[in-house]
Structure formats: structure tokens, C-alpha cells
Amino acid sequence: MGPADDDTLRLKPEAPSRPRPALPRALAVLLGIGAVAGLTWYWTGPTPPPAPPPVAAPAPAPRAAIPLVAEADLAALLPERPALVRLAENPRVFLLLFPDLNLQAAALNRVAALVEKAGLPRDRLLDPAELEAAIARSGDTPATWYLGHDYRAADLARFFALAERDRVPLNEAELWVRDQLALASAEAGAGPLALISAAAPGPQMDAAMRASVLRHEIGHGHYFTLPGFAEHVRQVWREGFSEAERDGFRSFLTREGYDPTNEDLLANEAMAYLLFTPDPRFFSPDQVGLPPAVVERLRGLMQAGLALP
Ligand SMILES: [Zn+2]
To answer: What is the per-residue pLDDT for 10?
Structure first.
């Protein structure tokens, strides 16, 4: 894990060719909170040994709210340790921001295996050797198995319930996710919640790719938290797509490792690739074997159901 002795949130210096934008207000607030109160939504490093019980318990310090960040400000938000923030445009969407792909992989690849990777058990967690073998079979590395993740809070809760049921040891990164799920749930209250993730740019993912990953995962965040939109997407998938068009997307998504028997997942992914994935390295009509005009028609059908809160 990274150094544990510095609680300061830093913005990475930008490349000299790109002027630094004025510090957005939300980030300025975030930095201010961080300096004053400590960033309780940060990974605080390995769990210290239990302290002796205090003579008189101090009053608990009020916990700072999880910072709201606008999508446009996420590009500049590159925390050096895993951090939890909340999407300003849809505050039922929480973002787990990781400093690198390997840490994101340690935190979430077993969840991906349980929830949506093809050919893997849906009723128990993989052990580390099984996970490693599944990733190797896919031709990926842990870091690139997914560049970003997206889950319903309910699916994450199921992951942790299965771990507890089967006494599966969780790694430090997974335990951090469990804590963030609890924080997000406590702050957002009842109703559907999404936790999505992205890592900072690095050798395997440049800044433009990260922006595209974030946009794609935010699309899933809307799907998970706006029931009317999700119902619209499923209806378009069932009735607006022809069988051949569904097959084109199903083949593409199968190649990408998604479970092709999960219609909810396929509809959600088709929507996210059509509406929220502008980078042609991640999605283009070629990849689904359909003419651009057909893809444009399907995009229009999906778009018609999206109204942000
Ligand atoms: Zn996706």
C-alpha cells in the first residue's frame, strides 16, 4: 500500500501543454475539508493495533460529508490514495477513485467475478487462485480485466454477505470498499445506490481513456439509480433492437468478458456504450458489426429515456 503518513489530497500537476483550470469550488471545499478535518473517506492504511480503552470516551467527532464533485471536475481529481466522492449531477451515484489500476483490481475484481464476468459462480466468492486463473483465461491481467467498475449497492452488499456466510477472508482493499459502501449507504439513505470506480491515468490508461471510462461508468450509475431510465433501456433492448442488432451487441459484450446470459447486464452495457462511451478505442459501430446509421438509431432510442434528476 502507499505511504500512510500524509492525509493531504493532491491534484497531480497537469501536462505543460494543458493549462490548469481554475480550481473548481467543489474541489477547493474538498481540499479545505481535508486540511481541517482529515479525510475520513480516505484509505487510512493498514489497521493499527487496538488502542487501550480510554478512561473517558471522548465525544465522537462529526464526520465530514462525502464530497460532491461535478463530472466536469473529475479529470482533475486524482487522489493519491483511494477516495470516495459523490456525483453532483446524480448524488445517488458514488465514485471510488483509485490511484492505480492494480489497487482497483485488488478492491473489485472478485466482485466483478461474482456479479458479471462470464462463466463464473454467482453464488460464492472465488479464492485468489481461482480469480488469477479466471483472469489468465481471459487473456487479461488483473489491472486490465476491467478499467472501471460499476455495481448496484445491493450487489456489493451481497458480495460482503457471501464473504461473511462462507468465512472468506477479504483483502485490505475489499475491506476498504466495504467501509465505503457503509458510508455511502448511511449518507444516502433508502433507495437505489450505485458505486462506480475508476483509476488514475498511468501506463495502461491515458487521461482521455480515463475520462471515457468515467463517463461510461457514470452511465451505469444512472441506470442503477433511475428506475424509470433503466426500465426504458430494457424496453429498448427488448423491443427497439432487432434480433440481429442484439446479436451484434451480445457478441461484442461476450468478447469483452460480460456474462451473455444476463439480459439486464447486456441492456445496461449496450446503453452505456451507445450513450456514454465517446472514445472510439472503446466503442465504434465496427465492434458491433452494424452500420453507423443503425447504431445512431439505437443511440437515439436509448437517449429518449434519459432525464437526470
Ligand atoms: Zn460497462
So the answer is: 38
| Residues paired with residue 94 on neighbouring β-strands, in sequence order | 86, 195
Residue found by looking up cell 432487432 in the block: 242
Question: Secondary structure of the chain: what % helix, strand, coil (to 5)?
Answer: 50, 10, 40
Q: What is the percent of the chain where pLDDT is above 90?
A: 75
Helix 263-275 to helix 207-225 angle (10° resolution) is: 130
Angle at 205 between CA 175 and CA 281, to 5 degrees: 120
Q: Where are the beta strands (DSSP E) in 101-250?
A: 148-152, 194-199
Question: Mean pLDDT in the chain?
Answer: 86
Give the contacts of 209 (CB within 8 A, at least 6 positions apart): 147, 201, 279, 281, 282
Compute the distance from residue 272 Cα to the ligand 1 centre, in Å. Answer: 6
Distance (angstroms) between ligand 1 centre and the Cα of 22 equals 31
Domain ranges, ordered by start, for the chain: 65-206, 226-309
Q: Which residues contact 307 (CB under 8 A, 6 or more apart)?
A: 226, 228, 229
What is the pLDDT, as a whole number, of residue 9?
A: 38
On whether the CB atoms of residues 275 and 299 are closer than 8 A, the answer is yes
Output the pLDDT for position 32: 38
The Cα–Cα gap between 30 and 13 comes to 17
Check residue 295 and give its pLDDT. Answer: 97
- State the distance from the centre of ligand 1 to the C-alpha of 63, rounded, in angstroms: 32
Collapsing DSSP to helix, strand or coil, 5 comes out as coil
Centre of ligand 1 from the C-alpha of residue 19, in Å: 31
